[in-house]
Design goal:
This protein has helices at residues 24-29, 50-62, 111-123, 142-155, 161-175, 177-184, 186-193, 195-203, 229-242, 250-267, 269-273, 283-303, 308-326, 351-366; strands spanning 3-12, 15-23, 31-32, 71-74, 80-87, 91-98, 105-109, 131-137, 213-214, 227-228. The termini are far apart. Helix content is 49%, strand content 16%. Strand 1 (3-12) and strand 2 (15-23) form a beta hairpin. Helix 9 (229-242) packs parallel to helix 12 (283-303) and helix 12 packs across helix 13. The model has no long low-confidence stretch (mean pLDDT 93). The protein is an alpha/beta fold and 367 residues long. The strands form 2 sheets. Strands 3-7-4-8-2-1-6-5 form an 8-stranded mixed sheet, with helices on both faces. A two-stranded parallel sheet has the order 9-10. The chain has 2 domains: 3-146, no CATH class; 194-366, no CATH class. The chain is built from 14 helices and 10 strands.
């Protein structure tokens, strides 16, 4: 069944936007929200927060109950537009008809308001007549919706950084990495480009990262998860920066990192068996050890041996040399989160100190 609305058509650059109001009952019968899910990696919305939905429902029922700003929505299919009146300096007053085959309406931004309104209607059907202000696009596909969502939310700093990184990854597949680097900068673009490496590491039962990484579709960390996707992916930038040939073979990079971290797990068994109380698999360890990875790679390349066992030998020598320079044994306790036990360089998330720790490691490889 088609949906007919009156709207003001406004053109911004090359996009038509239809400013309208949709009766809640009409919208709730035919809308969709594209949530990001790890199974498909094609959605773009952040996870729904039920507490926020309830807050909005209560606001509608018990408080002022107005939404003066519009939600952003899209119709991917064709719409019929009938001009009613030209408006000076504004655009065109028109009647738009959305045919059944062009529905549902895709909610780009405003999902919590829509879901809160749904909850209010379920408790009081009078809210079905609530007029919801909508800025309606006619973008052709989900990618363009995602791009609009990313621009609106990332500029406003509302979208979680892990989800924003997934947006950039989808953009890299569409426009290519060089263009993404021009738009977003080298570090952000490469961090996004290597998210498949993180996905493979965290889903491989033979990897020490198995089930230890929190993804964007999770509101909080599950038991055993100790790091978010973003810092793990971003830290890989420091590998690519010096070993950019690995960009051409992310499968090779994944296998190298799996062996690298498995070698570290053999050197520091307690830290990996009880990751909550150690920093080696958190931001300080991940950044410093990825910063030094190119040096380990060079040593393996010289020996023409990239096996886990050879990496382990290089790492053990490195930690022994670095310990002498630091005046501290680099053992499991070195990575402890206990301020009375662990080394402050291994506990700090300051980029300056993480770089300093990595430099100690680098110089220890050269000795």
């Amino acid at each position: 069944m088609s949906l007919t609305l009156q709207a003001i058509k406004i053109r911004q650059k090359d996009k038509d936007i239809y400013l309208t109001a949709i009766r809640a009952g009409d919208l709730l019968k035919r809308y969709d929200i594209s949530w990001w899910k790890r199974e498909s990696d094609e959605g773009y919305q952040r996870p729904l927060k039920e507490a926020r939905v309830n807050e909005i429902k209560n606001y509608l029922k018990k408080d002022l109950g107005t939404f003066p700003t519009s939600i952003l929505a899209n119709v991917r299919g064709k719409i019929e537009v009938k001009s009613l009146k030209l408006l000076d300096n504004y655009g065109d007053l028109c009647e738009i008809t959305i045919p059944d085959e062009s529905l549902p309406i895709e909610v780009i931004d405003g999902q919590h308001r829509v879901q809160g309104l749904r909850a209010a209607v379920e408790e009081d059907e009078n809210f079905a007549n609530y007029p919801l202000i909508v800025s309606l696009f006619t973008l052709p596909n989900k990618y363009d919706e995602m791009l609009q969502f990313h621009i609106v939310n990332s500029r406003a700093k509302n979208v979680p950084t892990d989800l924003a990184q997934r947006h950039l990854y989808q953009m890299s597949r569409k426009i290519g990495l060089p263009m993404l680097m021009l738009k977003e900068g080298e570090r952000s673009a490469i961090g996004a480009y290597v998210t498949p490496v993180v996905d493979k590491l965290m889903t491989d039962p033979k990897s020490v990262w198995y089930q230890r990484v929190q993804l964007p579709d999770q509101a909080s960390k599950d038991e055993g998860q100790i790091i978010r996707q973003r810092p793990l992916a971003d830290s890989i930038y420091y590998i690519i920066k010096e070993k950019n040939t690995l960009m051409k073979d992310l499968d090779k990079l994944t296998e190298l990192l799996k062996d690298y971290w498995n070698a570290l797990a053999e050197i520091f068994p307690q830290a990996f068996s009880d990751p909550e109380h150690y920093t080696i698999q958190r931001t300080p360890g991940v950044y410093s050890l990825h910063m030094v990875f190119p040096e380990i790679y060079n040593e393996c390349e010289k020996a023409n041996d990239f096996s886990k066992e050879h990496m382990k030998g290089v790492l053990e020598r490195m930690f022994d040399n670095a310990g002498h320079e630091l005046g501290d044994n680099i053992d499991d306790d070195f990575w402890s989160t206990d301020i009375y036990v662990g080394n402050n360089l291994a506990q700090s998330t300051s980029m300056k100190l993480m770089r300093a720790l990595a430099q100690y490691f680098r110089e220890a490889v050269w000795q």
